[in-house]
Design goal:
Its EC number is 2.5.1.17. By secondary structure, the chain is mainly alpha-helical. It has one domain (22-173): Cobalamin adenosyltransferase-like (Hypothetical Protein Ta1238, Chain: A). Helices cover 55% and strands 5% of the residues. The strands form two sheets. It has a two-stranded antiparallel ribbon. It has a two-stranded antiparallel sheet with strand order 3-4. α1 runs antiparallel to α2 (54-73), α1 (26-46) runs antiparallel to α4 and α3 runs parallel beside α5. The chain is elongated.
Length: 191
């Protein structure tokens, strides 16, 4: 089998289930941005020592789910069962709660950075937000999507934010606060 099909030479790509779409269609933008995100997570994982770092294993698992998420967005009208499920979102929420509690308290916005790993995780957060915006655009086009996959992206960006902060904390790296920030992160949740 050849890696090239020439199918895209006129600007089209195949979707899961046999359909086709232009390479700049909202669905392709959505799963393409998820692929970009996964590559950034891969870069982050590559900077970790697999033998000494449990974060390596955790992020490789997250990469598997990100691939599942992209696959769901590449699947119009549930041509096959969706892969992102509520328990994945629950796992992310538990990790978010853990990393948030285990990190120093903040009440202002921070500037992304710190250690190289934390800076990479902030890039993961940004790419996740981009993927989420593309997913919302797809939803606004009245396209069928796995709503759990959209929730997954929303939680995933929070996960990368708190994980970056935790990584900095573990390294003894202080956060750099945004100088013009108002007080945030301490507002009471609306019921």
């Amino acid at each position: 089998m050849s890696i090239y099909t020439r199918y895209g030479d006129r600007g089209y790509t195949k979707l899961v289930g046999g359909g086709r779409a232009k390479k700049n269609a909202p669905r392709v933008e959505a799963y393409g941005s998820i692929d970009t995100l996964n590559a950034q997570v891969g870069l982050t994982v590559a900077s970790l020592d697999a033998q000494e770092n449990s974060l390596y294993t955790e992020l490789v698992q997250v990469q598997q789910w990100i691939f599942d998420c992209g696959s769901d967005f590449a699947t119009p009208e549930e041509k096959r069962p969706y892969k992102i499920e509520p328990q994945m979102i629950g796992w992310l929420e538990k990790k978010i709660d853990f990393y948030w509690t285990a990190s120093p308290k903040i009440d202002r916005f921070i500037i992304p950075g710190g250690t190289v790993s934390a800076a990479n995780l902030h890039l993961c957060r940004c790419f996740t937000r981009e993927a989420e915006r593309n997913a919302v655009n797809l939803l606004e086009q009245q396209e069928a999507i796995n709503e759990e996959a959209l929730k997954f992206l929303n939680r995933l960006s929070d996960y990368f934010f708190v994980l970056a902060r935790w990584v900095n904390g573990q390294a003894g790296q202080s956060e750099v606060f945004y100088e013009n920030s108002v007080s945030v992160f301490n507002r009471k949740k609306k019921k």
